[in-house]
Structure formats: C-alpha cells, structure tokens
Amino acid sequence: MFGMRIKLSVFGMILLAGVVGGCADSNPPVPAAACQSEDCRFTDPWQDGPYPVGVRNSLVFDTTRQALAWDGCDRGFDCPRPIPISIWYPAVDAAVSKPQINFNSFFSVTEAEVQEIITDLVEDLGGGDVPDISIPDKVVESRLNVELRPGRWPLVVFSHGAGGVRFQSLFLTEFLASHGFIVISPDHEGDATISEIEGQIVTAAREHFEGSALMRPQDVMFLIDQMTAWDVDPDHWLNGAVAIELGVGLTGHSFGAYTSITVSEIDDRIAATVPQAAPGLSMFNDQVPTMFMIATEDDTIDEIGNDVMRAQYDLAPVPKAKFELLDAGHFTYSNMCDLFSDFGDGCGTGERITNGEPLTYVDSEAAFDVINGYTTAWFGAWIKGNPQYFEALEFRPDDSTVRYTIELYR
Questions:
Q1: pTM to 2 decimal places
Q2: What single-letter DSSP state applies at residue 53?
Q3: Which strand (E) or helix (H) includes residue 287?
Q4: Which letter does DSSP use for residue 247 in this model?
C-alpha cells in the first residue's frame, strides 16, 4: 500500500529506459503567466497555509479507454476507464466551523477488510511478511464538501505509488490546498490497493501493473482536461476557479513520480514537477523545472534507484533542485506510518541500505515539514510566479535533516 515494497524487478522496464538528458544552452525559463492576483500571493511555505481546506470525492469515467479491473459495468458495452478522485481546495473562512474528518473517513471498508485485501495482495506479489494494519482515528485538516473559496487557484496533480491510494499523502495534498492550490489525486484503477467504484471494491494486482504504466499518464492528462472543462462549466462547483493558464504542477510518490515525469515530457501544460522517491526515470522535458526528492535510506528502490535519480539530476538542465531527506525511507514520503508504525523503510526502525547498520528513521512530522515547505515553494515559484518563493528556495531554514542543492541559473 502507498507504493508497495515491490523492489526494482517490478520497475525494470522503467529503469531500463536509461538516464538521459542534457545541458541547457540558456537561462532557465520563467513562469509563463505570473499571477498577480490575491490568489497567488506569497504564503510562507514553512508555516501552515492561511486557508481552511476542503475536500470532495467523486468518480469520473474516460470513455475513450476500457477498464482494467472494474467489472461492474452493465451499460451494454465494454466498461469505460473509471477514475475515482479526491480534490482538495482552499475553502471559505466559515469552513472552520465544520468538523474536520478523520483519516479513516477515506476508507470505504472496515479495518478487517483492508487487512484481508493487503494479505491477498502480498501473496499475489510473491509472499512475505504481512503487516498488521491499524487505521488511526486521526483528525486531518480536511472538511468534507465545504464551500470553495472564491478565486482562481493554481492546479497540482498528485499521483500515488504502486499499490497506493489517492489519499496516501494527506500531509502534502492538504498542505498545498492550505497555501492556495487546488490539488486533484486519482486512484489509478488496477494499481490502487483499495478503490471503491460504484459500490464495488477494486484492488491492485500484479497482472495490472504493466497496463497501469501506460494508463497512469493518460489518467493524469484526462484529469487536466476534465479540470479545464469544469473551469468553464457554469453548473460545476469549480467554475471559474481552476487557473490552468498558469501551468499545472505535478507530483507523485514512487510509481507516481514516474507518472509525473512521463506526463511532463508529453504535455506542454506542465509548469513544474516534484517526483518523490522515483523508481527510475526517463527523459526530462528541458522546459519543466524539476525538484528531485530522494530518501537516502530507501529500501524499496535501494541504492541503485537513488543513484539513478542523482545521475538524472546531474544531467538534467536548469532550473532544477535536488532534495535528499536524510535517514528517510521510501514510505517517509507518505502517511504510510500512520497505518503501519513499525513497517520499516521509513516507518519505525530498519537498516541502512549502504552497510546494514541499524537505523531509526527520521520522525514523520519533521519529514513532512520539510517536504511540504520545499514542494510548496517550488510550485509557488514556477506556477504562481511570485519571486518571494525563489527567495524561500534559495534562503531556506537551516535543517540538518536535508541535503539540498538548487540550480536556478546556468
């Protein structure tokens, strides 16, 4: 779940794409349409954002593609591709009077059912220890279905890891929304651990992973199209609110990081990317500023996966940044540790991937603070176009948990 520990063999075809890139011949691009409105004002990325956070859940269908795993279609033709989504957004001030939801509100099945699904998935992936799940009664920042704050807000798309779920990184999606971004995240059908589609529970399976590698980027581009359409739909709650013209931000964890990079290569609407703990990357679009996020003790992609990301950073053109979170595991970039507190690879204790020495992973809340700060500043710089975000990136708080490099100019 949240990017299952599947090791490099599952992503071999991605890694074999190679490390390619080149040097830029000019100064880095500037934001295409710097936003001068109140909606794009600078908000300190090292603090919680000023806006209450709303969330709405929905289900959309891409009728140009067929479903991989969902078999609930009774419309008399092949089932269209289902995409369950969550959208986080800045809400009106009155939303603070509404109750915050719990972490377990995002699950549509019981804890026992989640345990059974994960047990079956681990067996499907070849066995291994099955962790005991505990869904916490943890209050999160989101208020369900509250009123959207008036304005035109920049868009960010988040893509979950292999065997993840769309709400796997609430710490990040909620934080971005509190800073004035609309964030949409899909369940990638066939590759999400648990996804409810019209009353049917659809789970991840090995047989769908290869197809998901092709479907995921199409999911993201379809959702950007959908958000563009909703922005001009007078009957939709997002009418007039999605500032696509500023460019779109992409981020994702593990397989979702690969998804983000792939979309940035082929979709010219993308303004900036933040791939997190990527299992292997392909060619980079030299017009898309990229911040590479690495977990130095990532036991899922291992040292070779981290070295691929470092080499890709070295070859990528400016503007770019490299963020290495020390003593972090693969799942530090998710809320995984809320479910499996001693899972390892970012949760509880483990071993260093370089020498096998015992390791206590970085505290999740401390990790979230710096992941959120750097990601928000990167998107603020390249999408909102506010120069104060560049200052926040270059003159960051001193933090011993991060090894950080940024190159904004050649």
A1: 0.90
A2: E
A3: none
A4: -
